[in-house]
Amino acid sequence: xxxxxxxxxxxxxxxxxxxxxxxxxxxxxxxxxxxxxxxxxxxxxxxxxxxxxxxxxxxxxxxxxxxxxxxxxxxxxxxxxxxxxxxxxxxxxxxxxxxxxxxxxxxxxxxxxxxxxxxxxxxxxxxxxxxxxxxxxxxxxxxxxxxxxxxxxxxxxxxxxxxxxxxxxxxxxxxxxxxxxxxxxxxxxxxxxxxxxxxxxxxxxxxxxxxxxxxxxxxxxxxxxxxxxxxxxxxxxxxxxxxxxxxxxxxxxxxxxxxxxxxxxxxxxxxxxxxxxxxxxxxxxxxxxxxxxxxxxxxxxxxxxxxxxxxxxxxxxxxxxxxxxxxxxxxxxxxxxxxxxxxxxxxxxxxxxxxxxxxx
Length: 360
Known about the structure:
Strand order of the largest sheet: 1-2-3-4-5-7-6
Helix content: 25-40%
Number of domains: 2
Distance between the termini: 31 Å
Radius of gyration: 21 Å
Oligomer: single chain
Structural class: alpha+beta
Number of helices: 11
């Protein structure tokens, strides 16, 4: 189960929230991401009381448990169960009768100020979570790009100004660094290093920024000889907004420095290039398989003002220098830059372009 973020995470400049425009809304309807839901984000904001939520050691977290009017709670709980049914089983309420809403938490940290809903199976006490947030177009683009270009599938729904996301389970990156890194014999160092290279490349090509250690998780899967690892992003707020190239490379955040140094001790440059190429090839294959859907998404993204022109121009200059291609200087949107990134790795496959694995 994912633990809460640290109580004092490094601050990130607050990004404005962008409304979902008509073109993106049409895309979401086409691919069944837009649904009529019985609960809105604004409805959940009408809580009457908050109780600070503590972790297993009694320390305060960034979350508060919220309390609603007694007359509202039964109706709200049934509505939240229906939202979960739409998220997981396409609205089939017959398979969620035995579930109940155990708790609703609220977090004021970050841009999305999310609600986290804990839902429990009454037969076996198994629990799951989902999140209800204020819809933000750049976050939606981030979720959809993760679904299309990464090895991870993501369920999410929108309804007007409301965004519903499923829980991304795993060990938070900061917890992994503190408690797991180099301490678990079943985790081979080379596997950790390999996954960092691949995650670094995925974020860079699809322009997902701010991947500090508390914004991604490690998914550990036991195998018949050694455990397998995958790094998964769990925060998509900073999709294609910042103008700095290094903002999209997780290796350059100081929070990730222990992980980077660990990988440098166990990874040869030639091997890093191999892993980078593997991920580039896989991304191109995913893009090809979802070519129509990805094309529509990037088209809508190119028309959507999710970043100021000066940030787009700064980023395109950095990418043009990085890839050695002046084609970037014609790009006028973040969607066009992602398309150009895919074109760059398509052209450059076979030429090493691994940036140095050294944090700033």
